[in-house]
Amino acid sequence: MAYPLRSALFSLDPETAHRATIAALRLWGGFGTPFAGRSGSDASAGVRVAGIDFPNRVGLAAGLDKNAEAIAGLFGLGFGAVEVGTLTPRPQPGNPRPRLFRLVEDEAVINRMGFNNDGIDAALTRIAALKRRAGVLGINVGANKDSTDRVADYAEGVGKAAPHADYITINVSSPNTPGLRDLQSRPALDELLAACDSARGGTPLFLKIAPDLDRAGIDGAVRAAIDNRIDALIVSNTTISRPALRSPLAGEAGGLSGAPLRTLAATKLIEAREASGGALPLISAGGIDGPDEARRRLDAGAVLVQVYSALVYRGPGLAREIVRGLAASR
Fold it and tell me: How many angstroms separate the CA atoms of 65 and 122, rounded?
């Protein structure tokens, strides 16, 4: 589905297009977006999750605004929640380029960015300078690649983010930092979540898991989240698996997102729902590209959905389209 400026953006390499998009959203937000805070539906679109009032059920997943540069502009697109990051205690450049790939034939993206960011302190300075927020702000935190104590990195990130965030997401599911996904297994996950729980004050904590966990892994992550007072589970991050793909770029290393992730993400949502028995709010991400798929995830047990890669192919009107579609399907 074409949208204005798609051809221009697709003429650029993906990372340059990404940076251009952030710059445009930052500029737009700086002038005061004309639609900020308007979800495209009535007040009944909102929902309360983890003690937070979300103005609608559609959030932006982490990864687009890594450095919290364009929050106002992103809220202006109609998202009920914007999640920034992933942010690490110290700045890091990420992995060598090229590290971001459009799989146009599949409406997919592969990335191996590697938590490239300016560091959490720089991002929090930008967040503190915001005059107001038109929705819920999440801050996604991770560990530095060369860290000698990753648990301490996460606890530091949570502690610093807590005064500025409506919620904090603990990201242990990126495939692009070696060894990071090992933290999804118990007892390492219990140690990590306990440290983050101690650091958060009263700020809700969300945990983001990988779609590549098997059923036992899902069960363990859900149990650890419940035992350590996690407020919601995001299911899921990108996958290292490769379903049937048409693009010649399918063999690139990294996490796959977009339309090919749809079936796997939906399956893992159902597994997480069964494992939690309703004791943990679930947020579904992966392959959601319109109101029909968003409705299917909500009907399958999610309380909120997040999108990101579909914006590349469907354009900046996607959030409003989903919010309006969900309102019409009630």
Answer: 13
For 84, 125, 278, 289, 330, the CA distances from 293, given in Å and listed in that order, are 23, 36, 21, 7, 14
Is the entire prediction scored with pTM above 0.85? yes
b/e per residue 146-182 (b: at least 16 CB within 10 A)? ebeebbebbbbbbbbbbebbbbbbbbbbbbbbeebbe
Q: Which of 39, 147, 174, 276 is catalytic?
A: 174
Q: What is the pLDDT of residues 27-70, one digit of tens each?
A: 989 876 544 444 444 566 899 999 999 999 999 999 999 999 99
Computed from CA positions of residues 296, 234, 180, 100, in that sequence, does the dihedral angle turn out positive or negative? Answer: positive
* Active site annotation includes 241: no
**Coil, strand or helix at 297:** helix
